[in-house]
């Protein structure tokens, strides 16, 4: 099912609410959202939890607000200000040039307060305990990074500065479409660094995960949560192959399918009644199981 996550909750807390409302412990989520973020969070229930790892690898879309002129410890509005160069005289042309350098295939250093584990401990936990964390750059793809609106403002300077110090900032409403593993907070940080102003994220809303959008997202405050059957989801999210009864029986016990051409690298296979059985991948001229969902 698809939930519209409210601000202030962790993804794990959303899972906890869903467990209580659905009366089952077997609920998981695909793709973590920070507590300040809102929007599309895909949950799996029952055996569909095993499908979440594959669904989390798909592309995502966001709407966000980036403040240029200030950098923060966490690359978002929840962290303390670490630098405040301001954004006076920042031209739109320079912003567009910096954006262009952050599109396409790039090497991105994740935010230090990400959920990536360092020595078995979440990076954000290390940062919050006062440790310095350096994460390795990772290849990601940013297919869209576009300014939708700009607002220039003057705000009070960082903590410790005289209260009458005025700091010019620029707030950019942006649209982002990117591969899994891309950190929008890191895009805000890197945009600010490229412009010499510093930058951080002040708002984030995920509008799409693969084929799932806000249009179908449910509020946790509703009377009942609607769960979509796993066969419908599998056919929607993966190329499909319908099998005859003999090959469906082989799939149920995880056998290789000899001389079976799949329509894509990872394919959902179904029995003659349309029931989702497994995900299979090519292996030479054959197909082999990636994950079997029925016995």
3D structure, described in words:
The protein is α+β, with helices and mostly antiparallel strands. It folds into three domains: 2-57 and 211-228, no CATH class; 60-208, 2-Layer Sandwich (Pseudouridine synthase), CATH 3.30.2350; 231-292, PUA domain (Archaeosine Trna-guanine Transglycosylase, Chain: A, domain 4, Roll), CATH 2.30.130.10. The chain is built from seven helices and 17 strands. Strands 1, 2, 3, 4, 7, 10, 11, 12 and 13 form a nine-stranded mixed sheet that branches. Strands 14-15-16-17 form a four-stranded mixed sheet. A two-stranded antiparallel ribbon has the order 5-6. A hairpin with a 2-residue loop joins strand 16 (276-283) and strand 17 (286-292). The longest helix has 12 residues, at 11-22. The two termini are 24 Å apart. It catalyses: uridine(55) in tRNA = pseudouridine(55) in tRNA. It is an enzyme of class 5 (isomerase).
């Amino acid at each position: 099912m698809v939930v519209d996550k409210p601000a202030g909750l962790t993804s794990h807390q959303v899972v906890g609410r869903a467990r209580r409302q659905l009366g089952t412990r077997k609920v998981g989520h695909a793709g973590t959202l920070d507590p300040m973020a809102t929007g599309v969070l895909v949950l799996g229930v029952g055996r569909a939890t095993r499908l979440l790892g594959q669904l989390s690898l798909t592309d995502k879309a966001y709407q966000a607000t980036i403040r240029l002129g200030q950098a923060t410890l966490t690359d978002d509005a929840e962290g303390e200000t670490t630098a405040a160069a301001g954004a006076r005289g920042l031209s739109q042309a320079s912003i567009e040039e910096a954006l262009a350098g952050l599109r396409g295939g790039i090497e991105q250093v994740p935010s230090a307060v990400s959920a990536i584990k360092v020595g078995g401990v979440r990076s954000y936990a290390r940062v919050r305990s006062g440790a310095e964390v350096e994460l390795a750059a990772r290849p990601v793809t940013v297919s869209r990074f576009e300014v939708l609106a700009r607002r220039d403002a003057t705000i009070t300077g960082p903590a410790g500065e005289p209260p009458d110090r005025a700091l010019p900032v620029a707030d950019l409403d942006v649209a982002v479409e990117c591969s899994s593993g891309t950190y929008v907070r890191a895009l805000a940080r890197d945009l600010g660094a490229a412009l010499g102003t510093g930058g951080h994220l002040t708002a984030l809303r995920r509008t799409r995960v693969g084929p799932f959008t806000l249009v179908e997202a449910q509020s946790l405050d509703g009377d009942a949560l609607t769960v979509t059957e796993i066969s419908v989801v599998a056919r929607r999210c993966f190329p499909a192959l319908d099998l005859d009864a003999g090959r469906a029986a082989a799939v149920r016990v995880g056998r290789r399918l000899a001389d079976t051409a799949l329509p894509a690298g990872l394919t959902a296979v179904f029995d003659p009644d349309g029931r989702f059985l497994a995900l299979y991948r090519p292996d030479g001229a054959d197909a082999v199981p990636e994950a079997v969902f029925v016995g």
